[in-house]
Specification:
Order of helices and strands: HEEEHEEHEHHHEHEHEEHEHEEHEHH
Low-confidence stretches: 1-15
Bound molecules: adenosine-5'-triphosphate, magnesium ion
Number of domains: 2
Distance between the termini: 61 Å
Largest sheet: 6 strands, mixed
Strand order of the largest sheet: 6-7-8-3-9-10
Strand content: 25-35%
CATH superfamily of the largest domain: P-loop containing nucleotide triphosphate hydrolases
Number of strands: 14
Number of helices: 13
Helix content: 40-55%
CATH topology of the largest domain: Rossmann fold
């Protein structure tokens, strides 16, 4: 038997630890839309990984490539050691995928939906009932299994979609915006079920999200994606620490700040980022004492009244602001997606 050189064996063991290993992934749609512009990403096995990014940044595109639904234009990705192009069949046997769009039928029962998926996945006849019941039980839907899905709440529908993806006991579970549009209680239940599944089976979880609090609470590691590139990865604590400097919070009288003023604020000495909320302005600065007089002068000169100034600990919002240059949360977009899911549910 031929032995691997020591270096290759080490390289192999590092490589084996990655659940996802993407190098230089580019995706160009229709020869013109550059959705991914060179994604490099490694996700550790058995981690919960959150991909955070604004609308149109390429999250779904990357997930579709990793789940073998389409090839990249350039680059190469391995999922659990399988190449997404040449080893697609191997990946599909071990991957669970819950798409952003609705993936269940509303005019049949939860159990019947699961039965369809069990057949699609090729689960043998004799084990279907047991596996479906276990999955429904695990996700807390046993009691409504025989009810029409159209009578389910949004959270129950999402849990049914997750249960169908869990039927094959995946080694890695991809969730595209798993709790978009759900109320806080329903989001919590979804995550409790996912966390207990992960604890029991050690599954790697890779999810796309707009919700920073969700990434903050449930992810071991976060990747920030902006305009088709991963601009930063790390644990929540690492990312927050990396913001460095100071975060100034200025409470303002509502209204009055337009884009030109924001641009001028960004140019103030020591300022690294500026974000405007409903009645507050967050300013990330290398040094608050240097930045504050310039910021106050500009606001004063524009007739904007500052009610209160305080310092704040960096949040993931600040992390995003620092690396992507914009704020992440886009409530109108979240409302849009939630509405689409609602419409499909009714239809
Ligand atoms: N099938 C397609 N054909 C052409 N362009 C596409 C296609 N799918 C996505 N795009 C474009 O590629 C870019 C990335 O889209 P993608 O859906 O991957 O982003 P996203 O981060 O998932 O966005 P969202 O937060 O809205 O779900 C966008 O500019 C989008 O319009
Ligand atoms: Mg998407």
């Amino acid at each position: 038997m031929k032995h691997l050189p020591i270096l290759d064996a080490c390289a192999l063991s590092i490589f084996m630890q990655s659940a996802v290993d993407a190098r230089g992934i580019v995706k160009v749609y229709e020869g013109k839309v550059r959705a991914l512009a060179g994604v490099d990403l490694q996700v550790g096995s058995e981690n919960v990984f959150a991909l955070l990014g604004p609308n149109g940044s390429g999250k779904t595109t990357l997930m579709r490539i990793l789940t073998t639904q389409m090839p990249p234009t350039e680059g190469r990705a391995l999922v659990m050691g399988h190449d997404t192009v040449r080893g697609g069949a191997g990946i599909r046997r071990i991957v669970g995928y819950v798409p952003q769009e609705m993936s269940v039928w509303t005019d049949i029962t939860g159990y019947e939906n699961m039965l369809i998926y069990a057949k699609i996945y090729g689960i043998p006849c004799e084990s279907r009932r047991r596996l479906i019941n276990e999955a429904l039980d695990g996700i807390g839907l046993s009691e409504v299994a025989d009810k029409l899905v159209r009578s389910y709440s949004g959270g129950m529908i999402r849990r049914l979609e997750i249960a169908s993806a869990l039927l094959i006991s995946p080694k890695i579970l991809f969730l595209d915006e798993p709790t978009i549009g759900l109320d806080p209680m329903a989001r919590k239940v979804v995550w409790e079920k996912l966390s207990s599944f992960k604890r029991e089976f050690g599954t790697t979880v890779f999810f796309n999200t707009h919700y920073m609090d969700e990434a903050d609470l449930y992810a071991d590691e976060i990747g920030i994606i902006s305009r088709g590139r991963i601009i930063r990865t790390g644990t929540v604590a690492e990312l927050k620490r990396s913001v460095g400097g100071d975060v100034l919070l200025l409470e303002l009288e509502p209204g009055g700040i337009g884009s030109p003023l924001l641009e001028r604020l960004r140019a103030v000495e020591s300022v690294k980022g500026v974000a405007l909320g409903e009645s507050e302005l967050r300013v990330i600065a290398d040094d608050a004492e240097t930045a504050l007089p310039g910021v106050m002068r500009l606001l004063d000169g524009s007739g904007i009244l500052v009610r209160k100034v305080s310092m704040s600990a960096p949040t993931l919002d600040d992390v995003f602001l620092k690396y992507a240059g914009t704020r992440l949360e886009s409530n109108s977009r979240i409302a849009d997606i939630a509405k689409v899911r609602q419409t499909i549910r009714r239809g």
